[in-house]
Amino acid sequence: MFISVNLNPSLQPFETRRRAWLEAREDARCAYRAWAQAGGDDRRTAYTVYCAAEEREEAAARAFGVA
To answer: Global pTM?
Structure first.
């Protein structure tokens, strides 16, 4: 089995980059909602998850060329 790892996202096909961005954007939205609804000790963890999801969305947006 051969697994290709491409470290330059701009070399990925357009649709692959677009799908990655859309999925990352939805993950960030879900993480934000979870953070907004979290309470107590879970709120800190939810915020950390949200920050990570936002960073992933920003990276995907840059790779797609929308940032």
So the answer is: 0.77
